[in-house]
Amino acid sequence: MPNEKSFRSPNIQKPPWSVRSKVVIHGIWAIAICCKGFAYFLPMVILPKHLIDLGYKEVDAVKVISVFGTVGAIGQAFASLVGDYVKGYIMVANLVAATMLTVNNIIAAYSTSLTAVYVYCAVSGFFLGPYLAGYYAVNNEIMDGENIYTLFLTMRLSKGVGATVGPYLAGHIRDVTGSYQAVFLSIASCFGMFILATFLLICNKKWRYLKS
């Protein structure tokens, strides 16, 4: 009779990353994080001004940002607690969170009440938690533990670009359109770009598994 070892599958050898695939992956990741940097920092910049323009007091604007930060800390802590259960699926978790944030910003574009702004900040803060909690670990998933340093460098640089350009671009959109509706929709579009880019990275990784 054949022994037990003859029934074992050989170790799966994944094909090496080509230079072109590395460049493409880093480019996609740069676009994703640049959009995420734009969308992450922009609410903190525009919300106080938005509320004051709607006729609310400055103290209300301060409270709204406090809710954003407090719920964000709760979301980050929750994501950290369940981190072991989503290990290996952090990109998928970011995909789900970004989808919720996209919907949230589309709704916010057509909301003007103070209650709606509080809800917006609570939802945004909570679903940005998984992104912040997995800020470092997600780089390990993109290329199966390879090129982590260059992926992290790309992330840090791209986030800075998005955070720098975002407020200026949002102000320009506000001046041209005369409303904040287009600004919130631009945030939603950036989260949408992040979703598309992350989805492409996940598909690329799955395709590599299939080729192996």
TrEMBL record:
InterPro entries: MFS_trans_sf, Proton-linked_MCT. One of its GO terms (molecular function) is monocarboxylic acid transmembrane transporter activity. This is Monocarboxylate transporter 13-like isoform X2. Keywords: Membrane, Transmembrane, Transmembrane helix. PANTHER family: MAJOR FACILITATOR SUPERFAMILY (MFS) PROFILE DOMAIN-CONTAINING PROTEIN, MONOCARBOXYLATE TRANSPORTER. The chain crosses the membrane at residues 23-42, 62-82, 89-111, 117-138, 150-170, 182-203. The gene is LOC106160462. It comes from Lingula anatina (Brachiopod).
